[in-house]
Amino acid sequence: MCSWRWAGTLTPARTRWLEHSTSRLMNTLLQIQNVCLEALAYLLPAERVSSGQIEQRLEPLYRRLGLVEGRLEAMTGIAERRLWPAEALPSDTSAQVACMAMEAAHIDPSQIGLLVHGSVCRDRLEPATACRVHHLAGLSPECLVYDVSNACLGLLNGMLQAAALIELGAVQAALVVGTENSRSLLESTIRWLVETPGLDRQAIKPAMASLTIGSAACAVLLTHRTISRTDCGVGLAVWRAESAQHRLCQSGPDDAVGLGMQPLMDTDSEALLAAGIEAGKATFGPFVEQLQRMGWPLQATICHQVGSAHRRAILKALQLDPQSDYITYPYLGNTGSVALPLTLAVAAEKAQLVDQQIVGLLGIGSGVNCLMMACRWGPVAVYGRDLAAA
User: What's the CATH code of the domain at 261?
Assistant: First the structure.
């Protein structure tokens, strides 16, 4: 049996919080009282690739199978996506957005007590990509540093871990960062589709989701309420794992990382959509129920940015108003783990979020895993750069 001891000082308030949180953890939810979302930062690559350009490269396949050009955008709602340069490492842009978030929040690097790198893409298997980000961003040697990998939920998982450590008083400020680079997956998929003989319409279906993937980098800076300038409280997290569905979206068994990546994904899009919706419904019920107990009416949502079919289905299943849900997938594609916080940043930047509004971050990722978080919106600092406009 595993046991542990708390090495710090258990004040009466902390004891009450631990007792409360332990009961909540058993029910797969955590109510958070002292954590604020302080800043968001994002970087968008300069290179744009339209769905039409991808279809031009797939012309031999389209011609042989009698596929009509324009179907990729029509089926997904994705007009274009971005690509990082071929030589770029995830840590390069993750370090940039980490520094941008600290600058936006007026936080000194010495104040960061936790750095989590949460994207699917990373520099190499060892050491953690967070190590190079920590070095480039000039963070303190006392900063806790590690990677988290959980498909499209990596950054959201990092936010939950950061919130728990801040709530416990272990750290005062935390950075959760990530960079997704879709170039290798996109190139490998196109090459496989064009060069593999004898493919029919059924055989190409597992690869089509890979053509929707986009690239971006994002950082989330969280602080304890006592040092926050925003008072944008992160109040709740609810999660669920339906791991019987883990085979519905998976990469090859020997994919490399960093510049050596030549990945291929096998995705049963229809089954994954159905499984994700069922898991989302099972998570959303307790999520809304707890928000009601807190007196937090859900007023705006950001779902994972997969595409138009997924969005229509999940909003219908959860009975959510599309007018109160924000999207970036039409011009950025599915940017994986950075999609949800990136879309939150863009919505804030465009003044689509209202002060004191309750915003739900509804994460659903392959595995199948769900993690939903809520915050009471405040004047969060946003620092975004689109390198295509530079």
Answer: 3.40.47.10
